[in-house]
Amino acid sequence: MPQAVRDASVPPPASAPPRAPPPRAPPNDSTLDYDIDALAIPEQREAMLRKMGFALDLDGGTLEKLRAIIARSDWMSQGNPKISKHAMTRAECRERRRVAPRLAEPDPRCAAANMVSLEPPPRDHSRVCIDQYEFPNVACEYPVVWVRADEANELCHALGKRLCDAHEWEGACAGVVKDPRDDYEWDQRRRVEMEYFHNLKREIVWAYGREQNHALCATSSRKSPKCLAGGFTLCGTNDFPAGAFPECVSSLGVYDQHGNAAEHMNLPMKAEELGSVGGSGETEMKGSWFIFKQAPAHPDDCRFRAPGWHASKVADPNSHRNYHLGFRCCRDVPDRPGTQR
Questions:
Q1: What is the mean pLDDT of residues 162-169?
Q2: Rounded to whole angstroms, how far apart are CA atoms 134 and 260?
Q3: Within 13 Å, how many C-alpha atoms sit on residue 303's CB side?
Q4: Is residue 39 part of a domain?
Protein backbone atom coordinates (compact mmCIF):
# COMPACT_ATOMS: atom_id res chain seq x y z
CA MET A 1 0.00 0.00 0.00
CA PRO A 2 1.53 3.38 -0.93
CA GLN A 3 2.85 5.26 2.04
CA ALA A 4 3.27 9.00 2.60
CA VAL A 5 6.77 10.14 1.68
CA ARG A 6 8.58 13.43 1.57
CA ASP A 7 11.02 14.77 -1.02
CA ALA A 8 14.16 12.87 0.00
CA SER A 9 16.18 12.95 -3.19
CA VAL A 10 19.79 11.83 -3.22
CA PRO A 11 22.15 14.81 -3.61
CA PRO A 12 24.51 14.62 -6.58
CA PRO A 13 28.27 14.04 -6.12
CA ALA A 14 30.24 17.17 -5.25
CA SER A 15 31.78 17.32 -8.73
CA ALA A 16 28.42 17.27 -10.52
CA PRO A 17 26.52 20.45 -11.44
CA PRO A 18 23.48 21.25 -9.27
CA ARG A 19 20.26 19.56 -10.28
CA ALA A 20 16.67 20.36 -9.49
CA PRO A 21 15.12 17.90 -7.04
CA PRO A 22 12.98 15.19 -8.64
CA PRO A 23 9.19 15.53 -8.47
CA ARG A 24 7.33 13.91 -5.62
CA ALA A 25 6.19 10.40 -6.59
CA PRO A 26 4.80 7.24 -4.98
CA PRO A 27 7.65 5.05 -3.69
CA ASN A 28 7.18 2.19 -6.15
CA ASP A 29 5.99 4.25 -9.12
CA SER A 30 7.50 3.28 -12.48
CA THR A 31 8.84 6.82 -12.92
CA LEU A 32 11.51 5.89 -10.38
CA ASP A 33 12.56 2.73 -12.24
CA TYR A 34 15.97 2.53 -13.86
CA ASP A 35 17.38 0.11 -16.40
CA ILE A 36 19.54 -1.93 -14.09
CA ASP A 37 21.36 -3.66 -16.93
CA ALA A 38 22.19 -0.43 -18.76
CA LEU A 39 23.76 1.50 -15.87
CA ALA A 40 27.34 1.24 -14.68
CA ILE A 41 27.56 0.30 -11.00
CA PRO A 42 28.06 3.86 -9.64
CA GLU A 43 24.95 5.08 -11.47
CA GLN A 44 23.02 1.96 -10.46
CA ARG A 45 23.85 2.67 -6.82
CA GLU A 46 22.75 6.30 -7.04
CA ALA A 47 19.46 5.37 -8.68
CA MET A 48 18.83 2.75 -5.99
CA LEU A 49 19.58 5.23 -3.20
CA ARG A 50 17.19 7.74 -4.74
CA LYS A 51 14.47 5.12 -4.79
CA MET A 52 15.21 4.19 -1.17
CA GLY A 53 14.88 7.84 -0.22
CA PHE A 54 11.35 7.99 -1.62
CA ALA A 55 10.19 4.55 -0.52
CA LEU A 56 11.57 4.57 3.01
CA ASP A 57 11.33 8.29 3.73
CA LEU A 58 15.07 8.62 4.42
CA ASP A 59 16.71 11.95 5.10
CA GLY A 60 19.81 13.21 3.33
CA GLY A 61 22.12 12.38 6.24
CA THR A 62 21.06 8.73 6.31
CA LEU A 63 21.43 8.45 2.54
CA GLU A 64 24.90 9.93 2.76
CA LYS A 65 25.92 7.32 5.36
CA LEU A 66 24.63 4.54 3.10
CA ARG A 67 26.41 6.03 0.10
CA ALA A 68 29.73 6.20 1.93
CA ILE A 69 29.55 2.54 3.04
CA ILE A 70 28.55 1.30 -0.40
CA ALA A 71 31.23 3.39 -2.13
CA ARG A 72 34.01 1.54 -0.28
CA SER A 73 33.06 -1.68 -2.07
CA ASP A 74 34.15 -2.45 -5.60
CA TRP A 75 31.36 -4.96 -6.30
CA MET A 76 28.41 -4.23 -3.99
CA SER A 77 25.44 -3.73 -6.31
CA GLN A 78 22.22 -5.26 -7.56
CA GLY A 79 24.32 -7.52 -9.78
CA ASN A 80 27.04 -7.08 -12.37
CA PRO A 81 25.11 -5.26 -15.14
CA LYS A 82 27.33 -6.75 -17.84
CA ILE A 83 26.23 -10.30 -17.19
CA SER A 84 23.12 -10.36 -14.94
CA LYS A 85 19.82 -11.44 -16.49
CA HIS A 86 17.15 -10.78 -13.92
CA ALA A 87 14.36 -13.34 -13.90
CA MET A 88 11.50 -10.81 -13.79
CA THR A 89 11.02 -7.10 -14.42
CA ARG A 90 9.82 -4.62 -11.83
CA ALA A 91 6.68 -4.00 -13.91
CA GLU A 92 5.87 -7.72 -13.85
CA CYS A 93 6.40 -7.74 -10.09
CA ARG A 94 4.05 -4.80 -9.59
CA GLU A 95 1.37 -6.49 -11.70
CA ARG A 96 1.67 -9.73 -9.72
CA ARG A 97 1.24 -7.78 -6.52
CA ARG A 98 -1.64 -5.72 -7.96
CA VAL A 99 -3.73 -8.83 -8.65
CA ALA A 100 -2.71 -10.70 -5.50
CA PRO A 101 -5.67 -11.49 -3.19
CA ARG A 102 -3.74 -10.18 -0.21
CA LEU A 103 -0.52 -8.31 0.52
CA ALA A 104 1.10 -8.10 3.94
CA GLU A 105 1.02 -4.53 5.25
CA PRO A 106 3.79 -2.88 7.27
CA ASP A 107 3.17 -2.96 11.02
CA PRO A 108 2.50 0.50 12.50
CA ARG A 109 4.04 -0.64 15.80
CA CYS A 110 7.44 -0.56 14.06
CA ALA A 111 7.14 3.14 13.20
CA ALA A 112 9.24 2.52 10.08
CA ALA A 113 8.44 1.82 6.44
CA ASN A 114 8.30 -1.80 5.25
CA MET A 115 8.89 -3.40 8.64
CA VAL A 116 6.79 -5.85 10.66
CA SER A 117 6.89 -6.87 14.28
CA LEU A 118 8.34 -10.14 15.51
CA GLU A 119 5.63 -10.15 18.16
CA PRO A 120 2.08 -10.84 16.99
CA PRO A 121 -0.89 -8.78 18.26
CA PRO A 122 -2.48 -8.00 20.66
CA ARG A 123 0.69 -6.54 22.22
CA ASP A 124 0.49 -2.81 21.55
CA HIS A 125 4.24 -2.33 21.39
CA SER A 126 6.88 -4.23 19.47
CA ARG A 127 10.33 -4.79 20.91
CA VAL A 128 11.88 -6.03 17.65
CA CYS A 129 10.91 -5.51 14.00
CA ILE A 130 12.26 -6.98 10.76
CA ASP A 131 12.40 -5.72 7.19
CA GLN A 132 9.67 -7.18 5.00
CA TYR A 133 11.99 -7.33 1.99
CA GLU A 134 15.65 -7.96 1.33
CA PHE A 135 17.81 -4.82 1.36
CA PRO A 136 17.13 -2.19 0.03
CA ASN A 137 13.76 -3.19 1.58
CA VAL A 138 11.62 -1.82 -1.25
CA ALA A 139 8.88 -3.89 -2.89
CA CYS A 140 9.67 -4.84 -6.51
CA GLU A 141 13.27 -3.67 -6.20
CA TYR A 142 16.20 -6.04 -6.79
CA PRO A 143 18.18 -7.14 -3.72
CA VAL A 144 21.70 -5.85 -3.12
CA VAL A 145 24.31 -8.59 -3.44
CA TRP A 146 28.11 -8.91 -3.39
CA VAL A 147 27.94 -7.58 0.16
CA ARG A 148 30.03 -8.92 3.05
CA ALA A 149 28.52 -9.54 6.47
CA ASP A 150 30.45 -6.68 8.08
CA GLU A 151 29.22 -4.32 5.36
CA ALA A 152 25.65 -5.56 5.75
CA ASN A 153 25.78 -4.93 9.49
CA GLU A 154 27.21 -1.45 8.93
CA LEU A 155 24.45 -0.62 6.43
CA CYS A 156 21.84 -1.78 8.93
CA HIS A 157 23.40 0.41 11.63
CA ALA A 158 23.31 3.41 9.29
CA LEU A 159 19.53 2.91 9.17
CA GLY A 160 19.21 2.63 12.95
CA LYS A 161 18.92 -1.14 12.65
CA ARG A 162 21.19 -4.19 12.93
CA LEU A 163 21.75 -7.55 11.30
CA CYS A 164 19.13 -10.02 12.48
CA ASP A 165 20.06 -12.80 14.90
CA ALA A 166 19.51 -16.24 13.36
CA HIS A 167 16.65 -17.15 15.70
CA GLU A 168 14.87 -13.88 14.87
CA TRP A 169 15.12 -14.52 11.12
CA GLU A 170 13.95 -18.10 11.59
CA GLY A 171 11.06 -17.05 13.83
CA ALA A 172 10.01 -14.35 11.37
CA CYS A 173 9.77 -17.13 8.79
CA ALA A 174 8.05 -19.71 11.00
CA GLY A 175 5.64 -17.21 12.57
CA VAL A 176 6.90 -17.49 16.17
CA VAL A 177 10.21 -16.25 17.57
CA LYS A 178 11.50 -18.49 20.33
CA ASP A 179 13.41 -17.44 23.41
CA PRO A 180 17.10 -17.49 22.44
CA ARG A 181 17.88 -19.56 25.51
CA ASP A 182 15.75 -22.31 23.95
CA ASP A 183 16.89 -21.81 20.36
CA TYR A 184 20.69 -22.05 20.64
CA GLU A 185 22.79 -24.95 21.86
CA TRP A 186 25.28 -22.80 23.75
CA ASP A 187 26.36 -25.70 25.95
CA GLN A 188 27.96 -27.36 22.91
CA ARG A 189 31.62 -26.56 22.21
CA ARG A 190 31.63 -26.61 18.41
CA ARG A 191 29.40 -25.03 15.79
CA VAL A 192 28.80 -28.32 13.99
CA GLU A 193 27.41 -29.78 17.22
CA MET A 194 25.25 -26.72 17.83
CA GLU A 195 23.78 -27.07 14.34
CA TYR A 196 23.21 -30.79 14.69
CA PHE A 197 21.28 -30.63 17.98
CA HIS A 198 19.31 -27.58 16.89
CA ASN A 199 18.22 -29.24 13.65
CA LEU A 200 17.45 -32.52 15.37
CA LYS A 201 14.63 -31.02 17.43
CA ARG A 202 13.49 -28.22 15.13
CA GLU A 203 9.93 -27.64 13.91
CA ILE A 204 9.56 -28.31 10.17
CA VAL A 205 7.63 -25.45 8.59
CA TRP A 206 7.91 -23.05 5.68
CA ALA A 207 6.88 -19.40 5.62
CA TYR A 208 3.82 -20.31 3.53
CA GLY A 209 2.76 -23.45 5.41
CA ARG A 210 3.50 -27.01 6.45
CA GLU A 211 4.01 -28.45 2.96
CA GLN A 212 7.05 -27.57 0.85
CA ASN A 213 6.20 -25.95 -2.49
CA HIS A 214 9.08 -24.31 -4.37
CA ALA A 215 6.69 -22.91 -6.98
CA LEU A 216 5.39 -20.38 -4.44
CA CYS A 217 8.76 -18.65 -4.10
CA ALA A 218 11.58 -17.19 -6.19
CA THR A 219 13.49 -20.42 -6.75
CA SER A 220 13.22 -20.98 -10.52
CA SER A 221 16.06 -18.89 -11.97
CA ARG A 222 19.34 -20.36 -13.19
CA LYS A 223 23.01 -19.56 -12.88
CA SER A 224 24.97 -18.01 -15.73
CA PRO A 225 26.38 -20.71 -18.04
CA LYS A 226 30.03 -20.05 -17.07
CA CYS A 227 29.35 -19.57 -13.37
CA LEU A 228 31.12 -22.56 -11.85
CA ALA A 229 33.39 -21.42 -9.03
CA GLY A 230 31.93 -17.94 -8.64
CA GLY A 231 33.35 -14.61 -9.67
CA PHE A 232 32.06 -11.13 -10.48
CA THR A 233 32.75 -11.37 -14.21
CA LEU A 234 31.25 -14.86 -14.65
CA CYS A 235 28.25 -15.00 -12.31
CA GLY A 236 25.21 -12.88 -13.02
CA THR A 237 22.69 -12.03 -10.34
CA ASN A 238 19.70 -13.58 -12.07
CA ASP A 239 17.27 -12.99 -9.24
CA PHE A 240 13.74 -11.61 -8.90
CA PRO A 241 12.44 -8.29 -7.59
CA ALA A 242 11.67 -8.47 -3.87
CA GLY A 243 8.09 -9.42 -3.06
CA ALA A 244 7.40 -10.69 -6.58
CA PHE A 245 5.86 -13.88 -5.14
CA PRO A 246 3.00 -12.65 -2.93
CA GLU A 247 2.35 -16.14 -1.52
CA CYS A 248 5.95 -16.50 -0.38
CA VAL A 249 5.28 -14.60 2.83
CA SER A 250 5.24 -15.58 6.47
CA SER A 251 2.29 -15.12 8.82
CA LEU A 252 4.17 -12.15 10.30
CA GLY A 253 4.40 -10.48 6.87
CA VAL A 254 7.99 -11.18 5.79
CA TYR A 255 8.67 -11.94 2.10
CA ASP A 256 11.22 -14.06 0.23
CA GLN A 257 12.73 -16.08 3.04
CA HIS A 258 12.83 -19.00 0.66
CA GLY A 259 14.61 -18.39 -2.64
CA ASN A 260 15.62 -15.01 -4.03
CA ALA A 261 18.78 -13.68 -2.34
CA ALA A 262 20.49 -15.76 0.30
CA GLU A 263 20.78 -13.66 3.44
CA HIS A 264 23.49 -12.85 5.96
CA MET A 265 22.50 -13.01 9.61
CA ASN A 266 24.26 -13.11 12.97
CA LEU A 267 24.74 -16.52 14.62
CA PRO A 268 25.62 -15.95 18.29
CA MET A 269 27.92 -18.63 19.64
CA LYS A 270 27.17 -17.47 23.20
CA ALA A 271 24.54 -15.26 24.79
CA GLU A 272 26.65 -12.10 24.79
CA GLU A 273 27.01 -12.34 21.00
CA LEU A 274 23.30 -11.76 20.39
CA GLY A 275 22.81 -8.71 18.21
CA SER A 276 19.84 -7.77 20.37
CA VAL A 277 22.24 -7.08 23.27
CA GLY A 278 24.85 -5.38 21.12
CA GLY A 279 26.99 -8.43 20.41
CA SER A 280 28.28 -9.97 17.20
CA GLY A 281 28.85 -13.63 16.45
CA GLU A 282 29.50 -15.70 13.33
CA THR A 283 27.95 -15.58 9.88
CA GLU A 284 24.88 -17.63 8.97
CA MET A 285 23.23 -17.78 5.53
CA LYS A 286 19.92 -19.07 4.20
CA GLY A 287 18.00 -18.95 0.92
CA SER A 288 19.02 -18.44 -2.76
CA TRP A 289 17.13 -18.13 -6.02
CA PHE A 290 19.14 -20.60 -8.08
CA ILE A 291 19.35 -23.70 -6.01
CA PHE A 292 16.32 -25.29 -4.38
CA LYS A 293 14.04 -25.90 -7.36
CA GLN A 294 16.87 -27.00 -9.67
CA ALA A 295 19.10 -28.97 -7.31
CA PRO A 296 18.26 -28.81 -3.59
CA ALA A 297 21.52 -28.70 -1.66
CA HIS A 298 20.03 -28.89 1.83
CA PRO A 299 16.65 -28.43 3.56
CA ASP A 300 15.14 -24.97 3.16
CA ASP A 301 12.54 -24.96 5.92
CA CYS A 302 12.43 -21.93 8.20
CA ARG A 303 14.29 -23.29 11.20
CA PHE A 304 16.94 -25.35 9.43
CA ARG A 305 20.31 -24.04 10.56
CA ALA A 306 22.65 -24.44 7.61
CA PRO A 307 26.19 -25.84 7.73
CA GLY A 308 28.89 -23.27 8.39
CA TRP A 309 29.68 -22.60 4.74
CA HIS A 310 32.14 -19.72 4.34
CA ALA A 311 31.78 -19.09 8.06
CA SER A 312 33.61 -16.19 9.66
CA LYS A 313 33.01 -13.59 12.32
CA VAL A 314 30.33 -11.10 11.23
CA ALA A 315 32.85 -8.32 11.88
CA ASP A 316 35.55 -9.93 9.70
CA PRO A 317 36.41 -7.51 6.84
CA ASN A 318 37.04 -10.58 4.67
CA SER A 319 33.70 -12.25 5.33
CA HIS A 320 32.10 -14.01 2.38
CA ARG A 321 30.31 -12.27 -0.49
CA ASN A 322 28.86 -13.56 -3.75
CA TYR A 323 26.39 -12.97 -6.56
CA HIS A 324 23.32 -14.37 -4.80
CA LEU A 325 24.00 -13.27 -1.22
CA GLY A 326 22.28 -10.26 0.33
CA PHE A 327 20.70 -9.44 3.70
CA ARG A 328 17.85 -7.78 5.57
CA CYS A 329 17.84 -5.85 8.84
CA CYS A 330 16.14 -6.01 12.23
CA ARG A 331 15.39 -3.05 14.50
CA ASP A 332 15.10 -2.81 18.27
CA VAL A 333 12.15 -0.54 19.02
CA PRO A 334 12.53 1.73 22.07
CA ASP A 335 9.78 1.73 24.65
CA ARG A 336 7.18 4.44 24.47
CA PRO A 337 6.40 6.32 27.70
CA GLY A 338 3.84 4.37 29.70
CA THR A 339 4.33 1.14 27.72
CA GLN A 340 3.39 -2.01 29.58
CA ARG A 341 5.29 -5.21 28.89
A1: 97
A2: 9
A3: 22
A4: no
